[in-house]
Amino acid sequence: MRYRALVTLAVVLACVLALELACALGWVARTVIIPPSEMVGSLRDILWSGEFNRAIALTLTNVMISVVISIAAGFVLGVAIHASDFLRRAVEPYLASYYAVPTFIFYPVFIVLFGVNSAAIIAIAVLLSIVAMITATMNGLDRIPTVLLRTARIMRLSPVKTALMIQLPAAAPYFFTGARLSVAYSFIGVIASEFILSGDGLGYAIAYAYNNFENRQMYGLMLLIVIAVTLVNMTLDRLDRRLQSRLRR
Fold first, then answer.
1. Predicted structure pTM score
2. CA neighbor of 63 nearest in space, from 221, 201, 199
3. Which of 14-18, 63-67, 245-249 has the weakest average pLDDT?
């Protein structure tokens, strides 16, 4: 595992050094991309000045709200669909092809419903992320070993005890996978929506910098998002591994 992490780190460093060298030698125009060292300097200035603190807080708040709604609602809907064969046969084909539909085509609808504010952005992010949680929940419930459910029936456990003591622990890794995907899709949904819907937030700040040819600021903000998403993903990945190892004991 440590070897894999070292290889990943080496690949990332090699790419960064290659880009730095290409910029220094003039192989890549500064109007296209700036050197990674300058991106780091821009990020330091952004964090130090506090100019974008409000935008950072707004984006992270919208992402957190979207994650909570998509995980909670996705779990409940996944359990409900799994419990009904009729509902499952009706809905499952649409879930399988859901991500073939570009969710952002619905943004005019959400503007009419919620106005140009955070509610419309969160709605799009939830629409993008909730299906990952629904399918992961159904997948997890499908893979609970039959012997565990028979044991619950033999021991005459109530439906609530069966859910809490048998189904939830057995399907937990799949639920966690759905939660991880919901977090990733929420980031994508919120930041992409801020590009087209919002007058605030990190997505809007990047679009504003791009339109005004402020490449240094734009790449600093982009680096901030990349680092934030990477840290969140690494944290969730570590929690997932701990959960998997605990369940294998």
1. 0.84
2. 201
3. 245-249
Q: Is the pLDDT of residue 156 over 90?
A: no
Residue 26, by phi and psi: left (phi above 0), alpha (psi -120 to 50) or beta? left
Tens of pLDDT, residue by residue over 161-186, are 887 788 778 888 888 888 889 999 99
**Model confidence pLDDT, tens digit, residues 110-127:** 888 888 788 989 999 999
DSSP class of residue 201 equals S
Asked if 238 and 53 touch (Cβ cutoff 8 Å), the reply is no
How many beta carbons lie within 10 A of that of residue 226, not counting itself?
12
Q: Using CA atoms, how far apart are residues 104 and 126, in angstroms rounded to an integer?
A: 12
Mean pLDDT estimate for the chain: 87
The whole-angstrom separation of Cα 168 and Cα 156 is 17
Q: CB neighbours of 229 closer than 8 A, spacing ≥ 6?
A: 184, 187
Structure tokens at 152: 């619950």
Question: Is residue 200 classed as helix, strand or coil in its secondary structure?
Answer: coil
Q: Quick one: residue 157, left, alpha or beta (phi over 0 = left, psi -120 to 50 = alpha)? A: beta
Phi-psi region of 228 (alpha: psi -120 to 50; beta: other; left: phi over 0): alpha
The torsion of the CA quartet 171, 173, 175, 176, rounded to 10 degrees, works out to 160
The residue assigned the tokens 């980031």 is 187
Q: What is the Cα–Cα distance from 36 to 30, expressed in whole angstroms?
A: 11
Q: Which residue has the tokens 């200035």?
A: 45
Six-digit token string for 160: 């609530």
Express each pLDDT in 61-80 by its tens digit.
999 999 999 999 998 898 88
